[in-house]
Amino acid sequence: MVLSKGDKAPSFTLRDTEKNEVSLTDYSGKKLLLLFFPLAFTSTCTEELCGVRDDAKLYDDLDANVLAISVDSLFTLGKFKEEQKYNFPLLSDFNKDVCRSYGTLYETFVLDMKGVSKRAAFVIDKDGKVRYEEILENAGELPNFNAIKEALGQV
Question: Which residues are catalytic?
């Protein structure tokens, strides 16, 4: 599925690193930055999420919530979150259903790994509609955070 600006964001329920269920509907009436990332502990993923962590005040000032999703197990994500002191939930899409519904799944990634999440960013408005989408084919690139912040400021 390809999502475009104005589309309703696909609903989901995943578990966070504390094993709690987190749903898109939990953020109804709120702005949301939804990030998909390939693999915990890799250099670009760490750089991306640490940048978001370090910009926490900016996201707070924009009244935006942040969720990050990968296909890693919630146990791996728990260790990653603990080591990097992330201040936002990391969600496990181990079964790859959410990545498929957002169009963010590599069929084959590096080293013949199957079903790894692409790096992607979605801004979802208070009504659950996509206001910004960016899906990167090159996992070594980072999303355009200036454009993301601009989109968050407009919703």
Answer: 45
Q: Does residue 119 belong to any structural domain of this protein?
A: yes
Average of pLDDT values for 10-38? 98
For residue range 114-127, what is the model confidence (pLDDT) as tens digits? 999 999 999 999 99
Domain with residue 79: its CATH number is 3.40.30.10
Enter the pTM of the model. 0.96
Q: How far apart are CA 45 and CA 63, in angstroms?
A: 24
Segment holding 72, helix H or strand E? none
Does the residue 82 lie in any domain? yes
Whether 4 maps to a domain, the answer reads: no
Query: 75 lies in a domain?
Result: yes
Q: State which residues form the domain around 129.
A: 13-154
> What pLDDT does residue 1 have?
66
Whole-number percent of the chain with pLDDT over 90: 92
Task: Determine how many CB atoms are found less than 10 A away from the CB of residue 30.
Answer: 13
For residue 30, which amino acid is it? K
Angle subtended at Cα 54 by Cα 52 and Cα 55, rounded to the nearest 5 degrees: 65
